[in-house]
Design goal:
CATH class of chain A: Mainly Alpha
Oligomer: heterodimer
Order of helices and strands of chain B: HHHHHEHEEHHHHEHHH
Structural class of chain B: mainly alpha
Keywords (chain B): Cell inner membrane, Cell membrane, Membrane, Transmembrane, Transmembrane helix, Transport
Helix content of chain B: over 70%
Helix content of chain A: over 70%
Radius of gyration of chain B: 21 Å
Largest sheet of chain B: 2 strands, antiparallel
Subcellular location (chain B): Cell membrane
Order of helices and strands of chain A: HHHHHEHEEHHHHEHHH
Distance between the termini of chain B: 17 Å
Function (chain B): Part of the ABC transporter complex LsrABCD involved in autoinducer 2 (AI-2) import. Probably responsible for the translocation of the substrate across the membrane.
Strand order of the largest sheet of chain A: 1-4
Number of strands of chain A: 4
Main location (chain B): membrane
Number of helices of chain B: 13
Subunit structure (chain B): The complex is composed of two ATP-binding proteins (LsrA), two transmembrane proteins (LsrC and LsrD) and a solute-binding protein (LsrB).
Number of domains of chain A: 1
Chain lengths: ~325, ~325
């Protein structure tokens, strides 16, 4: 078989394939519908991607450290329900920090199980997906949660207001992304995350406290989830118990699309943001050219497989797998 | 007793022991807490339990062999829904209009072939691209769900065939049709995994892929066959279930993959591959269903079921690791 040429066009496609695909999509959709690149459309897409995006930022840390987090969907439902309930009971100013504290406790619990007890993260977070869903239902008694006075509360600003002409959800997404991006790329902690995910044993031998790094990654994921829940709650001011259901796999799809390896040790915040935006723009573009929303599922499927395949192929230098 | 025998015994028998504990607990607690005056271990109740376990159980048996092989399949829920749609929709196709009830075997065959093809596609991609099965099936979970929606939009697909409903509700030797399917599937897959070359190779591949390749085992075809089997079983589960209910929503089967994996892990199958037993998975499926029924029986909110199952899953993982650690320490001495 011809070796896969890493320096040629194929190699460039494999390394930067996701950006090329993104560019092609934008060109294609712009030709199909000139409204696609209109500023208000772009703003709308980023705004509706913000919730998924903020969650994906935290999961990026977890994935780079070599673990998985399948519990973010139910945790987001929990955050939304709790903050809406507390809003009417103790007021928004106290409700928000209380909600953050509760969600961070859940994150700390998962971090303890995966980091310090070294349990398999897939099963732990699968269990927590179920457990937190149960917790949410028990908390709300199975009912939908609504804010009593929807007009008179400043709580709606996180999801509905603008600042400097930019919607607040986008600003929050950008803020969290830049802070976490700097933490991951420029601080000793960020480097430890890569080290732990790349080769855990080597990291331990070089004096990195693996358990503490993993624990902190789950805390960050929980923080992001709480922020996503805040935006969701503030945008709708009322919610079902299942608002985040299924998001965990979409979030993971965005992170993988951004090029993070599930084995850990690779991925960046910037690429995850690109992955999130690709998902958002594909969804929007397909709707604008008049296709149903579910066509995006099929397109996402093809893109994920192609993106990861090219990535894997570039690493091993061969297009087809060596498996007999 | 040899060192390690006790822990092996504990691990193998743990799930059945857990079922016995559940039965005892719910029977005794039911005496005091239940609103109904029927005993929990009532025969009809237990028969119903088997029947209700069947849809998840049949898929879980397939997931066991996928996980023994070191892979995972997240697309089973979508495969389940798509097969159900093919089953119900094909019975109304004008081509088969003159066949009467003769359409039933054709519709079954079409649905099962759909499942096998979807599984084969997953297997082929895993085999040929070398992309991790988790990512491949995460993608196809979305993709197959998209196909489900494309088939009939957001509308439910319905078709009731009374002959089929009678068949699905029939009881043979006391057991429901669905139960028979679950038991037969368990027996057949047990045979495949324990008495055939394919089964032994599947364990070998999951345990140590490099060693398996060096021993001359062709890894790819075995993985593909396993994906075809789970596709077949996911559609068989749909066939059994929707023959009776006759109507499928486009988001039916969502989160099935997570329930199935929970049952398989509860049965003691390792995510890393190479270990696991079909019979223990059956135990895991029954344990979860018992928990659901039992908590309902003693009047607990249905909400708490999710909480309890999640925490038990984590507890099982923890205990399993502790037992394994003990075994390893004994070896070192």
């Amino acid at each position: 078989m011809r070796p896969f040429n890493l320096s040629g066009i194929g190699g460039f496609l494999a390394k930067q394939g996701i950006l090329v695909a993104f560019a092609l999509f934008i060109i294609g959709f712009t030709i199909a519908n000139e409204r696609f690149l209109a500023p208000d459309n772009i703003m709308g897409v980023v705004r509706s991607s913000a919730i998924l995006g903020v969650m994906a930022l935290g999961v990026t840390f977890v994935v780079i450290s070599g673990n998985l987090d399948l519990s973010v969907g139910s945790m987001m439902s929990f955050a939304t329900i709790v903050v809406l309930d507390l809003h009417d009971q103790i007021g928004p100013a106290l409700a928000i920090p209380s909600m953050y504290a509760m969600v961070l406790c859940l994150g700390a619990f998962i971090g303890f199980l995966v980091g310090y007890l070294k349990l398999n993260s897939l099963i732990v977070t699968l269990g927590m997906l179920s457990a937190i869903h149960g917790l949410t239902l028990t908390y709300s008694g199975g009912k939908n949660m609504d804010i009593a006075d929807k007009e008179g509360t400043w709580f709606s600003m996180f999801g509905q207001s603008d600042a400097l002409g930019i919607p607040i959800p986008i600003l929050l997404f950008a803020l969290v992304a830049s802070v976490l991006g700097i933490v991951l790329a420029k601080t000793p902690f960020g480097r430890k995350v890569y080290a732990v995910g790349g080769n855990g044993t080597a990291a331990t031998f070089s004096g990195i406290q693996r358990a503490r790094v993993v624990f902190t990654c789950y805390l960050m994921s929980a923080f992001c989830v709480a922020t996503a829940g805040l935006i969701q709650a503030s945008r709708s001011l009322g919610s079902q118990n299942t608002v985040g259901q299924g998001l965990e796999l979409e979030v993971l799809a965005a992170v993988i699309l951004g090029g993070a390896s599930l084995l850990g040790g690779s991925g960046t915040i910037f690429k995850t943001v690109i992955g999130v935006l690709i998902l958002g723009f594909i969804q929007n573009g397909l709707l604008l050219v008049g296709l149903q929303f579910y066509v995006q599922y099929v397109v996402t499927w093809i893109i994920i497989i192609l993106a990861v395949w090219l990535d894997v192929a570039a690493k091993r230098g061969k297009l087809w797998s060596p498996i007999a | 007793m040899e060192p390690g025998t006790l822990s092996t015994f504990l691990k193998r028998g743990a799930i059945w022991g857990f079922i016995v504990v559940e039965l005892l607990f719910f029977s005794i607690a039911g005496e005091y807490l239940s609103l109904s005056n029927k005993a929990f271990m009532d025969l009809d109740n237990m028969l119903l339990l088997f029947k209700q376990s069947a849809p998840i159980g049949i898929i879980a048996i397939g997931m066991t062999i996928i996980m023994v092989n070191g892979n995972i399949d997240l697309s089973v829920g979508a495969t389940f829904a798509l097969s159900a749609i093919v089953l119900l929709n094909s019975m109304t196709w004008p081509v088969f209009a003159g066949l009467g009830d003769g359409v039933i075997p054709i519709a079954w065959a079409l649905a099962l072939v759909t499942g096998i093809l979807l599984g084969a596609l997953n297997g082929l991609i895993v085999w040929k691209t070398g992309v991790d099965a988790f990512i491949v099936t995460l993608g196809s979970m979305l993709g197959y769900r998209g196909l489900v929606f494309m088939y009939n939009g957001e509308q439910p697909t319905s078709h009731l065939n009374w002959t089929l409903v009678d068949f699905a509700e029939a009881q043979f030797m006391g057991l429901h049709t669905a139960t028979w399917f679950l038991l037969v599937v368990t027996a057949v897959i047990w045979f495949v995994m324990n008495r055939t070359v394919h089964g032994r190779n599947a364990y070998a591949i999951g345990d140590n892929r490099t060693a398996a390749i060096n021993a001359g085992i062709r890894v790819g075809p075995h993985m593909m066959i396993n994906f075809m089997i789970i596709g077949f079983l996911a559609s068989l589960s749909a066939v059994v279930f929707y023959s009776e209910s006759g109507s499928v929503n486009p988001n039916d089967g969502e989160l099935y993959e997570l329930w199935v994996i929970t049952a398989v892990v509860l049965g003691g199958t390792k995510l890393t591959g190479g270990a696991g037993s079909v019979l223990s998975t059956l135990g895991g499926v029954l344990a979860i269903q018992l928990l659901r029924k039992g908590l309902g029986h003693i009047g607990a909110d249905t909400e708490t079921v999710n909480l309890v199952i999640g925490l038990i899953l984590i507890a099982v993982l923890f205990l399993d690791r502790q037992l394994n650690l003990k075994g390893r320490e004994a070896l070192r001495i």
